[in-house]
Amino acid sequence: MSQNKEQNKGSQTKQKILKVATTLFSQLGYKGASVRKIAKEVGIRESALYNHFKNKEEIFLEVARGIFTSPFTITHDEIQELAKRGKPFLQKFTMQYKMLTFDKSNESMFRLLMIELMQNKELREQFMHEFHDKNIKLLSEGFFIMMQNNLIKSNDPMMIAYEFISTMFYIRLQITLLRFDAKSTNALSTQFEKHLDFFWENIKL
After folding, report:
1. How would DSSP label each residue in 23-56?
2. Which of 10, 84, 103 is nearest to 52 (CA)?
3. Is residue 71 located within the same domain as residue 162?
4. Domain co-membership, 73 together with 171
5. Domains in the chain: how many in total?
6. Which of 77, 144, 162, 202 has the fewest CB atoms lying closer than 10 Å?
């Protein structure tokens, strides 16, 4: 087997491990999803799993990184160009954040991560870096560009970023809690857009 084929096979196995682990963590919790169970569901020996991850915590942190990552899936240059247009920058961010929130494949893991954040220091540090710091930096840059182009009022871009994302995070948490109790989230389906419109009206020139 060529080196490229081996690398592709290894990458596919790693992704399968993460997919299976996400399901098991969601169903059984962190403690209940053992390495042995993950390997069995993947269809490989437990020893083979350690070729990809050194332990269960590393698998968990990798899964968490996918949940906590910034919703923006466009390049840095595209972000800068979009920010020059003002509101469309925030509309795209909001739309992708909303899609992440209502993605049922992420829902159980997000709930589990909220629990584990209180118990796992490395997870907290990863959350602060992957979700908090990256999003605040990204949004701050966007707001700064908007100020330079006289689209919004001059202010501290980092504080504006905090104000913008904190409400969205709260809506996401509220939706998670409602679903945990099997309650309807229909009333919140347009809250992200309402937040965006209200926010924009208060910062635009």
Report:
1. HHHHHHHHHHS-HHHHHHHHTS-HHHHTTT-SSH
2. 10
3. yes
4. yes
5. 2
6. 77
